[in-house]
Amino acid sequence: MQWNREARFTAFVLVKVVIKMVLWKKEMIRYTEAFIFLALGLVVTLLVLRDIYEGFEIMFLGNTWVTWFAVSFLLFAVYSLAAKFVFVKSNEFYRKRIRSISFWVGFAGALYIVTVPFFKGELLF
Question: Model confidence at 124, in pLDDT bands (50, 70, 90)?
Fold first, then answer.
């Protein structure tokens, strides 16, 4: 079976569209994942961490958005670790994320921002 020029062009365009749709779907999943963790981090920061800090007589004032992002990243890191080691052990995406230096630097920074106020007695920022 021979394809004429128009049929080959149409098949080529359809393949490109399908590839773009697959990539778009992956990107939308990543954006949704980020939005969910930012929302969860905000809820945990305002409803849980604020009460814990105030229980230790730490004033929850200042740039609390830094704490919000730190809590969001901690939740994201715990999710990534659970996804890699418990749920989908063979997924290449999570394996690359866990091996990333920036992931571990972000995790250490977020852990520092959330835990140091217990020792210092005030929020860092």
Answer: confident
- For the record, the structure tokens of 91 come out as 């997924």
Q: How far apart are CA 81 and CA 50, in angstroms?
A: 25
Section 62-80 average pLDDT: 94
Q: 41, 110 in Cβ contact below 8 A?
A: no
**pTM score, two decimals?**
0.81
Between CA 98 and CA 86 the distance in angstroms is 13
Q: Do residues 45 and 67 lie in contact, with contact meaning Cβ atoms separated by under 8 Å?
A: yes
What is the secondary structure of 22-51 as a DSSP string? HHHHHHHHHHHHHHHHHHHHHHHIIIIIHH
